[in-house]
Amino acid sequence: MWLRLRGWTKLVAKSIYSKRYGKFLDLLVKARKRADLTQVEVASRLGRPQSFVSKYESGERRLDVVEFLEIAQVVRFDPIKLIRTLNTI
């Protein structure tokens, strides 16, 4: 993706392909597994199909902040702690 800012053209990598986003997904999967929940169980608690969980865990679908907070609530992990972990990468 190319972005033009004040006469400069820069290549901007999409965050879904970044190392940090990959770590974010890894942390989400680990949190779900630590809670001993399946994708089906998380999806059910969210009122979504299992494919929703599968797609965000695989990186096929991006999460927005509200969805991330809903997932944190149903999986019962601290979203702030997860974000702080990402900040160390």
Helix fraction? 55-70%
How far apart lie the N and C ends? 23 Å
Low-confidence stretches: 8-12
Question: Mean of the pLDDT scores?
Answer: 87
Beta-strand residue fraction: 5-15%
Structural class of the secondary elements? mainly alpha
> Quick one: biggest sheet?
2 strands, antiparallel
Radius of gyration: 15 Å
Task: Walk me through this protein's architecture.
- This protein is mainly alpha-helical and 89 residues long.
- It is built from five helices and two strands; from the N terminus they run ββααααα.
- The chain has helices at 19-34, 39-46, 50-58, 65-75, 79-87, and strands spanning 2-5, 8-11.
- The protein has a two-stranded antiparallel sheet with strand order 1-2.
- Helix 2 (39-46) crosses helix 3 (50-58).
Summarize the structure.
This protein has 89 residues and is mainly alpha-helical.
Topology:
Elements: E1 2-5, E2 8-11, H1 19-34, H2 39-46, H3 50-58, H4 65-75, H5 79-87
Antiparallel strand pairs: 1-2
Helix pairs in contact: 2-3
Spell out the key features of this protein.
89 residues, mainly alpha, 60% helix
